[in-house]
Amino acid sequence: MRISKIWKYSLAAACLAAFAATAPAQTVKVGVVLPYSGVGAEFAQQVDRGIQVFMKLNPKAFGPYKVELIKRDSKNPSGAEAKTAVQELIAQDKVDILTGFIYSPDAIASAPLATEAKKPMVIMNAGTAWITNLSPMISRVSFSMWHSGFAMGEASAKNLKAKTAVVGYTDYPPGKDSLDAFKRGFEATGGQVIDAIPMGGPGQVPDFTPFFQRAKGKKPDVFYVFVPSGDHAVAVMKTYNALGMRQEGIKLIGPGDLTPDYKLQGMGDDAVGLITIHHYNADLDNPQNKRFVEAWKKDYGPTSTPDFMGVQGYDGMAAIAHAVVTLKGRLDPEKTIDALKGWKFNSPRGPIMIDPATRDIVMNEYLSEVVKSGGRLVQKNIGTVNAVKDMCKELKEGRCK
Amino acid sequence: MDPISILLGGLASGMVLFIVSVGLSVTMGLMGFVNLAHGGFAMLGGYAIVLAMRHWGLGFLPALGLAFVAVAAFSVVLERLLYARLYRASELDQVLFTIGLVFVMTATVTLGVGPETQVVQLPDWLRGQTDLGFIRYRTYSLALIATGTALVIALWLGFERTRFGARIRAAVDNRRMAQSLGVDVGRLFAVTFAIGSGLAAVGGGLGAEILGLDPNYPLRYLVYFLIVVSVGGLGRVAGVFYAALLIGVLDFVLKIYFPKGGTIFIYALALLLLLWRPLGLFGKRGA
Q1: Does B229 map to a domain?
Q2: Contact assignment for A244 to B210 by CB distance below 8 Å
Q3: Residue A259 neighbours by CB under 8 Å, 6+ apart
Q4: What is the distance between the alpha carbons of residues A160 and B28, in angstroms, rounded to a whole number?
Q5: Which of A217, A238, A241 lies nearest to residue B1, judging by beta carbons?
Q6: In this structure, is residue B139 part of a structural domain?
Q7: Among the listed residues A322, A397, A401, the one whose alpha carbon sits nearest the alpha carbon of residue A358
Q8: Greatest Cα-to-Cα distance within chain B, rounded to the nearest angstrom
Q9: A171 chain-B contacts, CB cut-off 8 A
Q10: Using the beta-carbon criterion (under 8 Å), do B1 and A213 form an inter-chain contact?
Q11: Taking the CB of the first residue and of the last residue of chain B, which one, N or C, has fewer CB atoms within 10 A?
Q12: What are the C-alpha distances in Å from B170 to residues A40, B91, B164, B182, B235?
């Protein structure tokens, strides 16, 4: 009696397993974790709109398979709320794949969960270099601080002919990453960093005057500044001009966080002449980007502009669509990672690829200068570095080993 | 590094502290009321300037005047409706009430205007650099130093040379005696409170270029205002002036030479000064 019961259950279980293995999943569930409320709400909006624009412009990207987005709010940048959100998405909503993640702590806190539950995780922003080493489930379509930092270091010496540099950075992990990256790139090409100035934390915009005055006193060829994108960047431009550093011949340079597309027009003429390097700006001249920006403005109004986070949302969705179609709607975790490795795509930011060795992105970095054209500020491309890898992992720096 | 431009930068940030804090010192000295919402009036002034310039196209100086009048008037309404009820309450009640008021102000501004930092658009003649003959420095910082100096002279004259000033000084030194000599301390306070809040509003607007302006302004700088007032001494215009300059210059210099240390030096300095002179550098023991 007893034995026959066990048999019965085993048989039923075996049938279920066989069924699950062959039947195609009807809907792919994508868990999206973004700070929809709180200080990062502006960033979440960029990424979310990027996702929407991808879905709208590419209705056939997912083939015959249906995709359901389940959105969760990761609120403040601590990582704790993101972790809870990921837990719920895995346990209750039974998602097939995770994406989003604006802040590095959010991605860092969620990485162990992705490993344990075997859920692929496509990172759409979080830029601390070593995040991709935290779980074999992680792949990144955004950037690492080293992409722009190292490339800017090289470009400063080669393109701008700078010999000396002062670095000013906001004192938190991405800021230190950016400083290290710039220093390595600049000194590898013959330049010398003569001073590095920590300029307060990311939580509030400080008065930059004393820090900039110190930098001015050192009379470097270039002043490399890393601050969080947004309000910090506006204050940097103002102080640089008010202290007359431009007249002293000190060039202000930095990663594209200094020139977020949606804040650029508000910076006014102060920003003219600013040189930055980044993987995207809304003025990039290629057909994919024209189509992307046009669709964006049509949906969100002519004054709204996508920035690098918007395009990262777009590309993240493209990566997921590629995995869904390749695996015929069934996102087996290991096979998903394999499908993403080496994936190539023609993004609005130009050609991109997921590095099969590191699961991090390989992309172009664009050196650009802010110029005035037709009454508005535009970022004029003055040089392109092709196929940039995350140099932190290439050079096996610190935690990137 | 060039010592004169460091000194000028420090003096400018000290002047901003002075303009915002002086009202707090006088009202706290006068009524013994712990008004932690003082920075809130500075923030409201800053927002009044930004909004008036943006929506009504007002110039910078008229907007400053408007902010002074509007915030002064608004503070009197609050004083009559709310503050007046708590004059005899314990200090803890006053602290709780004014901190609550700060939260209300912060939330209202976030809801009405938004959480982002606001930029006060300076007129062209205040931007860029000015050549002083021996040095070129930021025009706006020089303007702040001139404004602060003019203000301290005006306040000093008002305090020391007018009947109104004499009444305030009398009431700060010994309120009961002043009352028994026929000084209407309640009305005196309302007027001083309005002027103090109005000055804070002007300080919020003038200082936005240096201190920034966003809904968290009142809490972020509260400690600075309190340090300036306690080091300078309650109800002492000259004391607050010297304390603000001392703290502004030291903070600036230390940030240049030890950027990693942040604000820790200022707190240590305030601690030592207050251990040495608990009533502040210029405070007098009341009767």
Answers
A1: no
A2: no
A3: A233, A267, A271, A274, A276, A278, A281, A368, A370, A379
A4: 56
A5: A217
A6: yes
A7: A401
A8: 58
A9: 260
A10: yes
A11: C
A12: 52, 23, 10, 11, 11
pLDDT digits (tens, 9 = 90+) for A91-127: 999 999 999 999 988 999 999 999 999 999 999 999 8
Q: Are the CB atoms for B128 and B139 separated by under 8 Å?
A: yes
CA–CA min distance A100, chain B (Å): 23
Nearest Cα residue to A217 out of A172, A168, A180, A170: A168
Q: What is the pLDDT of residues B180-194, one digit of tens each?
A: 998 888 888 889 899
Query: Would you call B259 and A197 a contact, using CB atoms and an 8 Å cutoff?
Result: yes
Domains in chain A with CATH codes: 10-143+286-359 (3.40.50.2300), 146-278+364-400 (3.40.50.2300)
Secondary structure (3-state) at A347 = strand
Residue B285, pLDDT above cutoff 70: no
What is the extent of the structural domain holding B120? 11-218
Domain count, chain B: 1
In 3D space, the residue among A15, A11, A48 whose CA is nearest the CA of residue A33 turns out to be A48
Q: What is the pLDDT of residue A151?
A: 94
Please judge whether A211 and B211 are an interchain contact, meaning their C-beta atoms are less than 8 angstroms apart.
no
B15 Cβ partners below 8 Å, 6+ apart?
Answer: B144, B145, B147, B148, B149, B244, B245, B248
Residues A360, A132 contacting (CB under 8 angstroms) = yes
- Which chain B positions have a beta carbon within 8 Å of A204's beta carbon? 212, 214, 216, 220
Identify the contact set of chain A against chain B, taking CB-CB distances under 8 A.
39, 42, 171, 197-200, 204-207, 209-211, 213-214, 217, 230-231, 234-235, 238, 241-244, 247, 266
- Residue bearing tokens 């966080």: A257
Q: Which residues of chain B lie closer than 8 angstroms to A244, CB-CB? A: 128-129, 136, 138
pLDDT tens readout for residues A186-202: 999 999 999 999 998 87
Is B204 part of any domain?
A: yes
User: According to DSSP H, which parts of A226-286 are helical?
Assistant: 231-242, 261-267
Nearest to B197 by CA among B63, B65, B67, B38: B38
Pull the structure tokens for residue A104. 């590095």
Q: Answer whether B260 sits within 8 Å of A210, measured CB to CB.
A: no
CA distance B166 to chain A (A): 38
The interaxial angle of helices A287-300 and A41-57, nearest 10 deg, is: 110
Contact B205, B38 (CB under 8 A): no
Please give, rounded to a whole number of angstroms, the shortest distance from the CA of B117 to a CA of chain A: 6
Interface predicted TM-score (ipTM) of this complex, two decimals:
0.82
- Contact B9/A210, CB-based, under 8 Å? yes
Residue of B210, B222, B256 to mutate, interface with A, max A Cβ within 10 Å: B256
Query: Under a CB-based contact definition with an 8 Å cutoff, are residues A78 and A84 in contact?
Result: no
* B82 domain-assigned: yes
pTM: 0.82
